[in-house]
Amino acid sequence: MRDHKYDQDEREEARCDACGGETGESDFEDIDDEFNPDEPMCPACQAARRQRNQCCEYCDEPAEYETDSGFLCCEHHSQYVDGYVSRD
Ligand SMILES: [Zn+2]
Ligand SMILES: [Zn+2]
Predict the structure, then answer these.
(1) pTM given for the model
(2) pLDDT exceeds 70 at position 56
(3) Distance 78 CA to ligand 2 centre (A)
């Protein structure tokens, strides 16, 4: 667990364009994503925005979920989850 106070000296703090929350480079240190200073967004909003620009791996529906198998629409995601939990 990281203590956010630890990051107070960071100079990259910014406000998320989408939700207005504070974000910055330090929020992205532990995740597989990159802070974009030109369009500052917190990790959650950036992931959501990226998904909005993606299509499902298995059909042409817009993706709503990002999984280990790639981007999935709602329907294929529920199949993916079903296959995951009900595997023999
Ligand atoms: Zn945000
Ligand atoms: Zn699909």
Answers:
(1) 0.56
(2) yes
(3) 10
42 and 66 belong to one structural domain: no
Please name which ligand lies nearest the alpha carbon of 78: 2
Number of domains present in the structure of the chain: 2
Q: How far is the CA of 87 from the centre of ligand 1 (A)?
A: 35
Q: Does the structure show a pLDDT above 70 at 11?
A: no
Annotate 15-32 with b (16+ C-beta within 10 A) or e (fewer).
Answer: ebbbeeeebbbbbbeeee
Q: Are residues 71 and 85 in the same domain?
A: yes
Question: What's the CA-to-centroid distance between 56 and ligand 1, angstroms?
Answer: 23
Rounded to 5 degrees, φ, ψ at 62 are: -65, 140
Of the bound ligands, which one is closest to the alpha carbon of residue 21? 1
